[in-house]
Amino acid sequence: MSGNVGFVFGIVIGVIGMVVLGVAYPLYNKTLKEEREKIAPEIIRLTDELMK
Fold first, then answer.
1. Residue 28, CB-side half-sphere exposure with 13 Å CA sphere
2. d(CA 33, CA 27)
3. How far apart are CA 44 and CA 25, in angstroms?
4. What are 9-35's pLDDT values in tens digits?
5. Which of 1, 18, 25, 28 is most exposed, with the fewest beta carbons within 10 Å of its own?
6. What is the pTM of this model?
7. Average of per-residue pLDDT across 43-47
8. How far apart are the C-alpha atoms of 48 and 42, rounded to whole Å?
9. What is the distance between the alpha carbons of residues 11 and 28, in angstroms, rounded to a whole number?
């Protein structure tokens, strides 16, 4: 019986982990896109400076 409880507990923890990942991944992509847009002009400016 205790083996079944551990099995079910593991499944519940796994499902919770998948839910967290399902929320975190889109949030990560949104943050990454915003940061890239924010620093892109500085990268272009530095690249132009090096090309001179």
1. 6
2. 10
3. 28
4. 999 999 999 999 999 999 999 999 999
5. 1
6. 0.63
7. 94
8. 10
9. 25
CB-based burial of residue 22 (10 Å sphere; 0-12 exposed, 13-18 middle, 19+ buried)?
exposed
CA-wise closest residue to 36 among 28, 26, 48: 28
Two tokens, residue 30 = 């949104």
User: CA–CA separation, 43 vs 50, rounded Å?
Assistant: 11
Instruction: Please report the DSSP string for the chain in residue order.
Output: -HHHHHHHHHHHHHHHHHHHHHHHHHHHHHHHHHHHHHHHHHHHHHHHHHH-
